[in-house]
Amino acid sequence: MSEAEKEAVQRFEQEIVQPSMDKLVVLQFTAEWCGPCKQLSPILEQVAADYADKGVILKKIDVDSEKTIAAAFRIQSVPTIYAMYQGQPVADLTQYRTPGALSQALDQILKQANISGEAQSREEQIAPLIEQGLALLDAGDHDQALALFGQLHEVDPDNPKILGALARAMILGGHSQEARQLIEGLDEKIASDPAVAQARAMLDVAAVGEEAVDTSAYEARIAANADDHEARFELAKALMANGNRDGAADHLLEIVQRDAAWNDGAAKTKFLSLLEAAGLEDPWSSAQRRRLSAVLFT
């Protein structure tokens, strides 16, 4: 090797191989003249920044100035992106060109390689406290759950499990408006998490903490005409607001059984929202899904 080649290898060892001993290095081979590289670089930089506390770092190699390293990796075209761990390429990330695809790939690699950064350590510490808070919610101790999840939110403000549980505690404690403000405008990735989706469904199907809704007018209309789906639908919503999810489910299923297509399937949609609000893994939701299946397929 020439002296220049030896220096290039030493730089690679120091700047890429050594950091990859305990972190995941996203290695981008690039060039000044490469248009796609310039389009991809901001995406890689943003994803790497988002994953910095999970043990991910981004390094770049210009194939024109670092020909020795590019040749060692047999780079045929740019951009080429590898994930490096413990000095070895563990994945080819070149095909992933969107933040979502890159994030999904990194999540899988981090899990398989068991790489831990600050985020993973924090998650391990917080996980038992989240379980404790969820147990408080299940036990109906909304004030204690609200206090606990409020503290956890200060420690880890972007954790979707904490956000969803905090919003649920607010709703069940009669603070629906505060819950709505908490979950509105969240990043799409966080907002789509099941924990946050459950809290949003609770806001949609119930007005916990408000005065009881008078259902007599709707009941009278249904008594006069069992096919008054509008009255039955409004009655179901009122029962939700009154905390009577069994009654609400019964009336929504009655509409589905009589006319599943009514109002573009509004009854089925509201019924599924009711299940999501309860938690899709909840035994009550499982039983109600079986009832819905029986109505739809028998």
What's the quick description here?
Helix content is 63%, strand content 8%.
Polypeptide structure, described:
The protein is of the alpha+beta class. Helices cover 63% and strands 8% of the residues. The chain has 15 helices and 4 strands. It has helices at residues 3-17, 35-50, 67-72, 99-113, 118-138, 142-155, 160-172, 176-183, 188-191, 194-205, 216-224, 229-241, 245-259, 266-278, 283-297, and strands at 24-30, 56-62, 80-85, 88-92. It has a 4-stranded mixed β-sheet with strand order 2-1-3-4, sandwiched between helices. Helix 2 links the parallel strand 1 (24-30) and strand 2. The longest helix has 21 residues, at 118-138. The protein starts with a helix and ends with a helix. The mean pLDDT is 91.
Main traits of this protein?
single chain, 298 residues, 63% helix
Describe the secondary-structure layout:
Blueprint lengths: L2 H15 L6 E7 L4 H16 L5 E7 L4 H6 L7 E6 L2 E5 L6 H15 L4 H21 L3 H14 L4 H13 L3 H8 L4 H4 L2 H12 L10 H9 L4 H13 L3 H15 L6 H13 L4 H15 L1
Parallel strand pairs: 1-2
Antiparallel strand pairs: 1-3, 3-4
Helix pairs in contact: 5-6, 5-7, 6-7, 7-8, 7-10, 8-10, 10-14, 11-12, 12-13, 13-14, 13-15, 14-15
